[in-house]
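Section 5.1 Outputs to date
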Amino acid sequence: MGVIKPQKCILSVMLFFLACLYAGSILAQDNKTIIKSADQTASLSDPENISRFLTTSSEGIYTANRNYVPANRNNEQKQSGEVLIYRDPDYPVMQRIDDLISRMTIEEKIGQMNMPCGYISDFGRDVPEKMESFRKFAEGRFMDGLGPGGGFFTLANNALHEGARQQADFFNELQKIAVEKTRLGIPLLQTEEGTHGLMCSGGTIFPEGLAIGSTWNMDLVNKIYSTAAMEARAVGIHQLFTLVVEPNRDPRLGRNEEGFSEDPYLCSCIAETLVKAIQGDDVSATNKTVAGLCHYPGQSEPSSGLERGAMEISERKLREVFLPPWIAGIKKAGALGVMATYPAIDGMPTHASKFLLTDILRNELGFNGLVLSEGGGIGTLVYMNLASDQKEAGQLALKAGLDVGISHEDGYMIPLIESLKEGKVSMDLIDRAVRRILEQKFRLGLFDNPYVDPDHAEKIMHTKESIDVALETARQGIVLLKNENSILPLRKDLKRIAVIGPNADHEKNQLGDYTAKVVLQEIVTALDGIKTKVAPKTVVEYVKGCDVIGNELNEITKARKAARNADVAIVVLGENEWNNPEGKGTVGEAYDVASLDLTGMQEDLLKAVHSTGTPVVLVLINGRPLSIRWAAENVPAIVEA
């Protein structure tokens, strides 16, 4: 790079020309002298261009500023048809990012750092209102003072309930708004949950994590998450999050059903496998997405077993028990997404922990992707009394290494701009987060290929092949806990079978949590399955008996009669899924318990059926280990389904 030291005017000009010849070239054009470096041009007839083209060191030495683009470059390029550097795929990605960041206002930068959940009430109460809000957010018209948004989190599951074509069409519409109706045309980054399959209407639903873990089959894990990624990318989703790789530690925690195992080694094997399945060798491929691992570095050993409870663990336990899956998923497999966890770890809230989010995650594990907040995660710093308000919480989170807010929290919106103006945060920190966001979008290929094909989306969503993988996983995930006197398998030609229990014919309870709000495909319940397997002359009598929780329904007498008249009684008990319409969930996010015993009247129902003397098979559909002491001692066959 040539230099000029301005001591004498003539010498300065001569050296300046020599420098430009060395760095690029000098051209005569329309009676003006044009300075041309490898990737930019400036006119000597414009003093402002020259001063901005050159940068000055502390020693007064001038060098060519390779990042400079003249202020009128946009209009010139539009008129001439020249492609902007950040839009030109021939330029290196980092140079494209540098060019784009240099053009962005602070409002546009903060807009990119927000990818809110589709369920937040700010967007509206019904689907049409939400969809219009999504359009405004994509264009930067949703909130005064905030630029176009960076993307969305779980939009499809909260608004697009008609299936693949509607999802692909609407995501294309939003991308068109972002690309064509905003000043810089930055594409959106769409994120959805993928705990056990793509979590939106039409996506294939695989068994919950504990069943997947129970297979010990990495080939199935690969097929499950390859399918989830393929379906997601086809409709326009670029990141799959809520891939819960942390080991389970306290069974009282309702979110345990999202995880795979209590064993760090098995969790590590699954983490490495699912990241490779989801991201592949090229995350920009049309059947791959970013794998977002959750919840870093863990949440499954909270005080009192309560969600968001502090994890009072030592650094040794952190490294020996909780970090192995992250090492496997990030260091070995290259995961590009992480969600910060709710709890404080050894006294420090994770969303404000530079030690966790930067020192370990990025410096030790080599993480090179995006760190997303939990839902309302920035607010954890307020209720844990580390920050006085959202504004201060945003400052702490940014400094720690949090890149994206997913809950429309003030800490990462207008107050963050105020924090910058007040000197509480630096532009370098904001640019750090924005650079990571843009790099994710570039590596996904969104600047060059932002749209998807709705016809293709319809063809590959929930195919026979994906259904077969789900069925095989369900079969291999079944655990036989007890089989006294080899009562199982049952003969298909039994004369009469009593099927009893609140989970025998409950569709949603057997799906687990983090499934689509609107499930479009047919669900086969335990009762349905039994009816299809027995001989044509076998009579199957069903009695619900009771509810999973509460005592409003009492059909125990009816169940006892059905069992007495049957050759065998199959009793299906367990837990309620978290989105139970009556608000009676017993497992899943935010449904923690003090006791692991069967809830409601379920054990009374089981004892009544057993008292008839008819052989009993107990089938459990649940999301955590249950305390079934009486059943273990008295029921001859127990199956964990």
